[in-house]
Amino acid sequence: MATFHYTARSGSGEMIKGSTEGQNQTAVARMLRDQGMIPTNIQNGNVRSSVGDALSRGKGGRIKLDDLVVMTRQFATMVRAGLPLLEVLNILADQIDKRALKVVMRQVERDVESGSSLFESLSRHPRVFSTFYLSMIKAGETAGMLDSILDQVAVYLEKANSIQRKIKSAVAYPAVVTVVAISITIFLLIKVVPVFGDIFEEMDGTLPLPTQLTISLSNFLQDNFIVAMVSTIGILGSIFQMSRTTKGKRLLDKFKLSVPIFGPLFLKVAVARFTRTLGTLVRSGVNILNALDICSKTAGNAVIEDAVVKTRASIQRGESIARPLRDSQVFPSMVVRMIDVGERTGELEIMLSKIAEFYEDQVDSAVAGLTSLIEPILIVFLGVVVGFIVISMFMPMFKMIEMVN
């Protein structure tokens, strides 16, 4: 019997952490469900993950989604070709470049060789393989459709990776330009403006109001630069710590969805991820309650997660999927209506796929639109700020020239 550390959601929605003994993660998950709790994370407390060992020794680096996509696609191709599972795992371990993932696959190969199923072997590495990935593998092994399931997993990961990259590019560009603009402004105020300020002190007369504002701001930054930096770091650190708590994460995720311009984009990403995950799981034969449980863990947003958890609880009481989604007031009405139609016509997975494709296209269009919209706005902002500082410094000189003339 091994010791497992778990995090689970109680019937009232409270997150509970604890430890228990069990034969494996599946047995622990079953025990927690029997106690009325929904497990969200279960880790072996006695044995560290192989990838954790590799990373702690500085070998390989962080396993990215791209690495899993390539490995899963190769996995599916070799299984479809009829190669024995052990030989497939051996080939994968040989050709994987990422050292941490190579260590994991070697361990998986040894576990399968010793008699464990593929699902059990992969589930010993929760830091690498998500709950979604493991559930799909389990469904594929049970139904004898591992090759087609792996294909579906690869497609899902590719879609998720594509959206992830687009969101990063949409957020990273304005963030970088904003940081550059602020850095240039601070440099001008601390290094350039004081030079002009010393010259203006020797002049008689009153300085123009813009010049006075610029010099006052420059003096303030010079006197309080360290305090301002420490305060900024403290605020960012507080936000980071708050995001690690359940309540804080929920507040931040709710704020993300309400932010102008970016809020609708984050909602579209969350809807696309939810429908793509649920559709893939339902198509693979995963029970709807288990599928919703997995969707709640992979939602990526606490507000969406809460809505999915409530939906799962409503289905347990015999209600439909669409009604609790509508009551959550998070999902767009079009999504709710299409899910309702799919549920009534028995084509839920088809409707979910159509919704996912629609919102993935919407994310593409939104990212392209944001890039084209934010770029000129940030350039104008930078030009106005720098231009104001430059003009405010030259205004007294123009006045001096007029006096001389």
Describe the protein's architecture and organization.
With 405 residues, the chain is mainly alpha-helical. The protein folds into 3 domains: 1-47; 49-129, Type II secretion system (T2SS), domain F (Receptor-associated Protein); 163-405, Up-down Bundle (Receptor-associated Protein). Helices cover 75% and strands 6% of the residues. The protein has 16 helices and 3 strands. It has helices spanning 25-34, 50-56, 65-80, 85-95, 99-113, 118-123, 131-143, 146-201, 209-243, 246-258, 262-283, 288-297, 302-316, 322-327, 333-345, 348-404; strands spanning 2-9, 15-22, 38-44. It has a 3-stranded antiparallel sheet with strand order 2-1-3. A hairpin with a 5-residue loop joins β1 (2-9) and β2. α4 (85-95) runs antiparallel to α5 (99-113). The model is unreliable at 47-60 (pLDDT under 50).
Radius of gyration, in Å, reads: 28 Å
Q: What distance separates the N and C termini?
A: 95 Å
Our count of domains comes out at 3
Helix content estimate: over 70%
Q: What's the name of the CATH homologous superfamily of the largest domain?
A: Type II secretion system (T2SS), domain F
What is the average per-residue confidence, as pLDDT, rounded to a whole number?
80
Overall geometric form? elongated
Order of helices and strands: EEHEHHHHHHHHHHHHHHH
CATH architecture designation of the largest domain: Up-down Bundle
Count the strands? 3
Structural class: mainly alpha
* Strands ordered across the widest β-sheet: 2-1-3
Largest β-sheet summary? 3 strands, antiparallel
Distinct helical segment count: 16
Give the C-level CATH assignment of the largest domain.
Mainly Alpha
Classify the beta-strand content into a percent band: 5-15%
- According to CATH, the fold-level topology of the largest domain is Receptor-associated Protein
Low-pLDDT segments, ≥5 res? 47-60
